[in-house]
Amino acid sequence: MQRTKIKEILQSDKCDYQVNVKGWVRSFRNNQFIALNDGSCMGNLQVVIGLDADEQLIKGINNGVSISVDGMVIASQGKGQKVEIKADAVTILGECDPEKFPLQLKNRPSLEYLREIAHLRFRTNTFGAVFRVRHTLAYAIHKFFNDRGFVYLHTPIVTASDAEGAGEMFRVSTLPFDNPPRNEDGTINFKEDFFGRATNLTVSGQLEAELGAMAFSEVYTFGPTFRAENSNTARHLAEFWMIEPEVAFNDIYDNMDLAEDLLKFVISYALEHNREDLDFLATRLADEEKQKPMNERSEMGLIEKLEFVLNNKFERITYTEAIDILLDSTAYKKKKFQYDVKWGIDMQSEHERYLVEKHFKKPVIVTGYPKEIKAFYMRQNDDGKTVAAMDILAPGIGEIVGGSQREERLDKLTQRMEEMHIPTEEMYWYLDTRRFGGVPHAGFGLGFERMVLFVTGMTNIRDVIPFPRTPKNAEF
Ligand code: 4AD
Ligand code: MG
Questions:
Q1: Considering the entire predicted model, what is its pTM?
Q2: Residues 6 or more apart from 213 whose CB is under 8 A from it?
Q3: What are the C-alpha distances in Å from 33 to residues 366, 431, 442?
Q4: Hey, which of 242, 252, 254, 397 would you mutate to test ligand 1's pocket, going by the most ligand atoms within 8 Å of its Cβ?
Q5: What is the rounded average pLDDT for all residues in the chain?
Q6: How many Å from the N-terminal Cα to the C-terminal Cα in the chain?
Q7: Fewest C-beta in 10 Å: which of 21, 181, 357, 378?
Q8: What is the mean pLDDT of residues 347-376?
């Protein structure tokens, strides 16, 4: 008999039909009631075994065991579910020794512990919900761009350029570490390397996306990016996924509109399609909040927060206004900030969070950052000091989007690259777009895991990517 997904059975009230279901046992009580989960949804299906069942079989059914069940869907006698399965035949597909199984669901395991057994954590309610939502968000992002006629461009993962100019790259090489070929001056001879030059894992697909935008008008990338920055925070990964739209003829204002529309679309899509998972995560978050002192608790629950973001326009301010707000704050006056505030600083997470969580209480788009703290490709404003950059700051997250209008004027771009020691000759291909039919254009990068954090209400970025890569950690 063909397998029916548990989600399908639980979603309908239909009774009195034969099915086959397969999944993993979440609990087994009174030698009679199995809670079975196949990952298709949050809910477990109750499987009822006859009292005359084989003793060996009963012994083998434990938390974690995988089974196949043939039986009849009937109206449930018990509370908590509309339907259940009266089993005719149960087969154990894969045993699971309860003494050795590291995932014991009885006392809710901590997120920290589950991170150590990330290969098994998908089988918990929390991670089931998180990764189903992650899937939906990825799908919604593709849908958003597809519906608007964007071309999905696959930009390279191995590259010779440093798109952000921040030097935080992982080298890709097949040269022997112990005895690399050297030039006469002692430096390593990358001409002998696999690609005939020094290469690294990409930090961003933007520069290549810009090339695509100069032909398709609207493109986006959605791929893994890598940063060898030694930030051991709850918001940073060394390997993360980024969505980078790039649009010809757009200016910074169009860019802000696009980003706001994208965020709102994917949030509403998740609310519509993953409500059960989000409700579970909302309860989880509410429980977690109860552990905190009163004054640190957030004012809104998860669902309320998501709906609030959907229903309110993002605040739009300039960097200069942001600095003035911070300087004017009691937090600043009472020296509550760890880092100093003055025009020109790269705002720290505490400053960004003050703006969104305390001052505006909603997402904020900050534009017009000082050029010194931003990448070479951003369009220079007429004041000579700032660039047409935009960061979107989200409550509980800080920066979720970073983008800009791009410098389309060849002379200004080359000058800025030279000032910032970016090799103009090697990047001839990037500059060519400005030489051959260049147009004003703009784009941004949305950190996918930060988006998942925001929507799921999880607090550590390591809990929203299946197998996190962070400094000193590449397990699994
Ligand atoms: O602000 P970033 O560095 O911008 C760029 O890479 C541009 N090339 C994007 C563009 O304009 N096409 O990164 C964009 C976003 C950040 O706002 C943040 O959400 C996320 O990527 N991000 C990270 N997420 C997790 N771990 C890290 N180490 C991250 N670094 C950036
Ligand atoms: Mg940024």
A1: 0.96
A2: 219, 246, 247, 248, 441, 443
A3: 55, 67, 58
A4: 242
A5: 96
A6: 35
A7: 181
A8: 96
